[in-house]
Specification:
Length: 322
């Protein structure tokens, strides 16, 4: 009978419902060993087509590998930044599978709150990373979800202030923003605006490219056509900065129009070294998931009232990359 029960348990763990997890039920027990359960943490990210989230995932996997005796990790992501409904489904799936904690970088600061509240009601610890949940929606839902991540406004201001030192007061600049419903997109726009207004620059255009390189390219092309005196483009992530660089190269404006970004993905580092991009911000993608995972494990062990934790964000320039 014991052998039959064991075979049944193994069959359940191999079923399609459980294919993403390393074990069944709350925690993981090793057959034949003393019953020491490890918590299971689900990392739910945005678009895995974005190098930033690929780096985040690898950082999480490396941390779990180094702490394999302490917890198991499930990594999930969506196809693109706007697939909010799929991310909601992932949170619901992880809740149904009985994970102990969810660490989430939400695609939308409002739409994911309800799914995360349901997870908390089911006994799951939820930690918010990268893109902060909307405080008003959290209040309306009566839920506290800690944010572990950088001050995006501060990081964008650092980049903008560095750019301003390479411009003259009155110069025309443009901002290419992320998804307008994302808190980090709003905060980065505000940080860029803070720096440009303080330096006396003229913001002649501000448009969303939804975090995507392909969308940023035609937007920046149109910007330089409409504003021939444009001196700089501030992009709220590096994917869009890559699109801006491609547009400026195609229009013969690369070098004449400065570009800054945000995220410090490897694809832009050579551009910064070569002067084709002026600067970006590093919010340490490889550690961002780790910060969230470590806090989730802490909450599972110690409980307590969830509180936000600020993580580092640093300016990246030619000088810092040498």
């Amino acid at each position: 009978m014991k052998r039959l029960a064991f075979l049944l348990a193994m069959a359940l763990c191999a079923s399609p419902v459980a294919f993403l997890v390393f074990g069944c039920g709350k925690g993981t027990a090793i057959p034949g060993e003393p019953s020491v359960e490890k918590p299971r943490v689900a990392l739910v990210m945005k678009s895995l087509a974005n190098e930033f989230f690929q780096t985040m995932e690898q950082g999480g996997r490396d941390h779990q590998k180094a702490h394999a005796a302490e917890y198991d990790l499930l990594c999930n992501g969506i196809k693109d930044e706007l697939d909010v409904s799929r991310q909601i489904q992932l949170v619901e799936q992880m809740t149904a599978q009985g994970v102990d904690a969810i660490v989430i970088a939400p695609a939308d600061s409002k739409a994911l709150v309800n799914a995360c509240k349901k997870a908390i009601d089911a006994g799951v610890v939820v930690v918010n990373i990268d893109n902060k949940f909307d405080d008003a929606v959290l209040g309306d839902q009566g839920v506290k979800i800690p944010f572990v991540g950088p001050d995006n406004r501060k990081g964008a201001r650092l980049v903008g202030e560095y750019l301003a030192r390479h411009l003259a007061a009155g110069d025309e600049v443009a901002i290419v923003g992320g998804v307008p419903t994302a808190f980090n997109a709003v905060q980065r726009w505000l940080g860029f605006e803070d720096a440009m207004r303080a330096a006396g620059m003229t913001i002649v255009s501000s448009q969303s490219a939804g975090w995507e390189m392909a969308k940023a390219n035609p937007i920046v092309s149109a910007m330089v056509t409409e504003h021939p005196e444009l001196k700089a483009v501030l992009c709220a992530n590096d994917n869009m900065a890559l699109g801006a660089v491609a547009a400026l190269r195609a229009t013969g404006k690369l070098g004449a129009v400065k570009v800054v970004g945000y995220d410090n993905i490897s694809a832009v580092q050579d551009l910064v070294r070569d002067g084709k991009m002026l600067a970006t911000a590093d919010q340490h993608a490889d550690q961002l998931a780790v910060f969230g995972i470590e806090y989730a494990l802490e909450m599972l062990k110690q409980g307590g009232v969830p509180t936000d934790r600020e993580t580092p964000v640093d300016l990246v320039t030619t000088e810092t990359l040498k």
